[in-house]
Structures are given as structure tokens and as C-alpha cells.
Amino acid sequence: MNTVSFRCTACGKCCNSPPLMSLPELFRHEGLFVGALAIRRAVSGAREMSVHTQAFDYTSLNRCPALGEDQRCSIHDRGKPAVCAVVPFDAEVPDGLQHAVLLNRNRSESYIGANCIVAGESTDHDVVVRDGRLVDNGYIDALARRREAARLDRHYWGGALLELLRRELSASNAVPAKGYLTLPLVPVLQIVAGVSTHCRIRCLAYIDSQIVLIDRMLVAALQRKNSRDRDATRELRSFNSTYARLRKQLERCAADSFTEIVDRERQRDFEAYLELDAGVAGSAESQESAAA
Ligand code: SF4
Ligand code: SF4
Question: DSSP character for 53?
Fold first, then answer.
């Protein structure tokens, strides 16, 4: 059965964890999501690694930080992550296997009871995969956008970071054989800050937003008094001390000390990728959050 139908009622059931996000998306929503770098071995136990950025939160909360009390996505119309626009598909899986992705999700805890995915055709749902082929143009476009966002991340900093990691981490046990090593975005920000003065100033604004957000999350965790939060609290404290150190390091850099590293055209490309035209001093969201 390679035909699958789908209809989202926006019940919010699958918004039970912070999503994968590209670096520009994390910058865009810096006052809402804590950004993290996830490093894993490409194949379990192998030396080769892969990296991506994602949002990080307390798993005990069992919800995405953008999910409103009404179970709706609070950023649906304000640059929702591209990975959320492809739900319930998976942009990392080839198109020819998406029917299997959907049917697997239908059996997973996050979707049970939502009745949004149906094998075959249904009068209440729209066919999204017919005979193994994607037929919904909206999802075809959304998958292309998410894959492009991932490609840009690899292009602008992922490749350089993997080179660094190969030298520093491949022989160590820091990256587990299975699962992820989660780090603050520091190594990514170091690459970004080295591109141009504009990028460095944006990184400083991002760090400030993240420190404020993490402090707020730590206070909320103290009030919750949930023993399951201890590991995440330790990680978030370490995020903040690492960000404070990086902040000092970036402040010490002369304003134009990076401009010889890459040519002006590449600087402009990089700044456009980061959506820096939207405002170097940080997003409106972060300013609102800092003022809160
Ligand atoms: S569980 Fe299904 S219906 Fe509910 S928000 Fe997710 S995709 Fe939509
Ligand atoms: S960003 Fe919105 S759509 Fe994505 S997981 Fe969070 S609440 Fe759900």
C-alpha cells in the first residue's frame, strides 16, 4: 500500500519537542529557541561525522517552545522552521520512501489519536502520496525548501566545521557511537564571526539574546523542581558560561580584523544567508524578549 492520505487539524500533538532548525532560523527566533549543535557519527561507530543545528529545551516539558497554550504554533506566520512545514514528511529521506515515513509516523506515539495520516484514500483526507509518488505540490515545495536550507548550512559553515571536528574529535570518545553530542553554537559562531564585522556584531547580539533566554529557562526550571531537568540544567549552564567567554573573545577583536579572511562578495553572500539585512542589532523578537 504505497498510497497515503493526510489532513492536519493543527492539534499540536506532534509539536512535542523543539525542532531541527537551520542557523538563519535560529537567528530569526533567538529569543524563543536555544540553539544547539548536534554532532553524530554518520554511521554508528564510524569515524565520519555529521553536524546540524537544532533547538534545545527540557525534554520534561514535552513540547516545542513555540507551541501556544491553544496548541497552535505561535510562529506559524512568522518564519516557522522549514522542517515544520514538511511535517509529516522527512526531508532527509528520499521522495520514493516518503510513504513509509508517513506510515511509520502513524504508528508513533506523537501521532496516535491524531488521525491525520491514513493508509490509502480517504474522503476526509487529501492524497499526498499516490503509488509511492509525492503528489501534493505544497509538500513538494516545502521539502525542496528544507533541503535547500540544510544545503546552505553545509555550504556556509557545516563543511568548515566538519574539517575542524575531524581533527579534534574523530579519535576521541566525545561523540557517542549512537545518538548525539550536543554543544552550544560556539564553534559555528566562531566561523560566522570570522566572516565580517557585520557577522561578528550579529553573533554578539545573538549571544546576548541566548544568555537572557537561558537564564530565564534556568529560573523556570528551579521553580519546577523536576529531577528529570538536572542534566539539561547542567548543559544550559555550561552553554551560558561558554557564551560569556566567546562574548569576551569577540569583543576583543578589532572591528575590522576579519575583513581580509574572505572576499567582499563572499561576505555579502554570507550576510544574505544569515538574513542580516533584517537588522544587525538582533531581531525584534530578541529585543522584546530582552525587555521582558
Ligand atoms: S499530529 Fe497530525 S494533526 Fe496534529 S498537528 Fe501534527 S500533523 Fe497536524
Ligand atoms: S515551531 Fe511550531 S510547528 Fe514547529 S514544532 Fe514548534 S510549535 Fe510545532
Answer: E
- Rounded alpha-carbon distances, angstroms, from residue 16 to 67, 118, 125, 256: 9, 21, 23, 43
What's phi and psi for 137, nearest 5 deg? -65, -35
Is residue 88 lining ligand 1, measured as CB closer than 6 Å? yes
Q: Are β-strands 117-119 and 34-41 bridged in parallel, bridged antiparallel, or unpaired?
A: unpaired
Burial of 11 (0-12, 13-18, 19+ CB in 10 A): middle
Residue nearest to atom 3 of ligand 1 (CA): 8
Distances (CA, A) of 251 to 193, 255, 256: 11, 9, 12
Q: What CA–CA distance (Å, rounded) separates 133 from 96?
A: 6
**Rounded to whole angstroms, how far apart are CA atoms 96 and 100?**
9
Query: What residue's CA is closest to ligand 2, atom 2?
Result: 73
Q: What is the phi-psi region of residue 279: left when phi exceeds 0, alpha when psi lies from -120 to 50, beta otherwise?
A: left
Q: Which atom of ligand 1 is nearest to the CA of 111?
A: 1
For the chain, what are the domain ranges?
Answer: 4-284
Alpha helices in the chain (DSSP H): 23-28, 82-85, 98-107, 137-153, 159-169, 186-193, 197-224, 230-252, 264-273, 284-291
Interval 173-196: pLDDT, tens: 778 877 889 999 999 999 999 999
Q: Are 274 and 23 in contact (CB under 8 A)?
A: yes
Greatest C-alpha distance within the chain? 64
Residue in this structure with the C-alpha cell 560556539, named with its chain if needed: 186
Distance CA 53, CA 36 (A): 6
- Rounded to an integer, what distance in angstroms lies between the CA atom of residue 19 and that of residue 63? 10
Q: Tell whether the model's pLDDT for residue 229 goes beyond 90.
A: yes
**How does pLDDT run across 59-83, given as a tens digit for each residue?**
999 999 999 999 999 999 999 999 9
